[in-house]
Amino acid sequence: MPATLKSPEGTGIGVGVNAWVWTSPFDRDSVQLIAKAAAMGFGVFTMPVEEPQLIDVAATRAALQENPLRLHISGAYGPTRDLTHEDPRYRKESLDYIEATLEICAQLGARLLVGPAYSAVGKRRKIPPAQREREWELAVAGLTTAGKMAADYGVTLAIEPLNRFETDLVNTAAQAKRLIRDVDLPSVRIHLDTFHMHIEEKSVYDAIVLAGSDLVYVDASESDRGTPGLGQVRWDELARGLRDIAYRGDCVIESFTPDCVAIADAAAIWRPLAPSQDALASEGGKFLRDLLS
Questions:
Q1: d(CA 244, CA 76)
Q2: Are the C-beta atoms of residues 252 and 18 closer than 8 Å to each other?
Q3: Which one of 67, 85, 185, 222 is CB 3.0 to 4.6 Å from 90, fit for a cystine?
Q4: What ranges do the domains of the chain cover?
Q5: 15 DSSP β-pair partners
Q6: Which CATH superfamily is 14-292 part of?
């Protein structure tokens, strides 16, 4: 395994930003966003790996050495990256992608690979219970393999429930909890996103408490995917829940720009969500620091 860049240590809840706020896919030209995030006062940066071959590890490593942010990596799961697919070649493609991304995590000192690794985003159907159970079993088997690979790289997989319009398999914290219990590996834990919770959960607070010590990563995304604090998400419940479970992970702004056609289409971003992406990041960061301080 290649030599790794050590991730900075920290205590308390770190506030971060995902590169998707500005760009997609992340490539060598995107590396300058690390310095931008640091200049805005963020202590955490999430780098999406949509195509592993686009990641310039050396340039990213140098940027992190100059701007020692804590790095997380987000997976991207399109139609051919699907651990629940009936065709084994797509399940293999998903595992190959996860392993390539885990290697990047290890090289850059990222300890979390976050996202909905269990299935392809956008896969939403009404299917018979027997097929649903079969796909659940495939997800468990695939995540068991991926979780063992993650442990070998010193990385934790943080599994994210998505809303009903983006997946039909795992929509709630309760389903995520069941999934990681079925996998039963310490390297497979939970990632929650306020946008999806706003749609699917009866209570943001209850979802956080149910996830409990298994919660290792939180996306801060407003009800319209715009600037955190300017929509309908119950941020008070988020803060209270994180405090009550003694959460010590990070809270990372996730939003998207309509200028990035592929990701905008996947996330249904048809209009600007803020006066500028810089304003979304800076104003959202201040809101979260005040909320979680």
A1: 31
A2: yes
A3: 85
A4: 14-292
A5: 251
A6: Divalent-metal-dependent TIM barrel enzymes (3.20.20.150)
| Distant-in-sequence, close-in-space partners of 286: CB < 8 Å, separation ≥ 6 | none
Dihedral angle computed from the Cα positions of residues 243, 245, 246 and 248, in that order, rounded to the nearest 10 degrees: -100
| Average pLDDT for the chain | 94
Q: What angle do CA 232, 71, 189 make, to 5 degrees?
A: 65
- Please state whether 70 falls in left (phi above 0), alpha (psi between -120 and 50) or beta: beta
99 CB contacts (<8 Å, ≥6 apart)? 146, 149
Q: Are 208 and 242 in contact (CB under 8 A)?
A: yes
In whole angstroms, give the CA distance from residue 48 to residue 31.
Answer: 11
Cα 284 → chain centroid: 17
Q: Which two tokens stand for residue 18?
A: 């995902």
Look at the block and give the residue holding tokens 């629940």.
Answer: 84
Q: Tell me the one-letter amino acid at 54.
A: L
DSSP assignment letter at 7: P
% of the chain beyond a pLDDT of 70: 96
8 A C-beta contact, residue 42 and residue 15:
yes
Give the integer Cα–Cα distance in Å for 189 and 8. 21
Query: Which residues make beta-bridge pairs with 252?
Result: 16, 219
C-alpha–C-alpha distance, residues 156 and 154, integer Å = 7
- Work out the pLDDT band at 5, boundaries 50, 70, 90: low
CA distance 252 to 288: 9
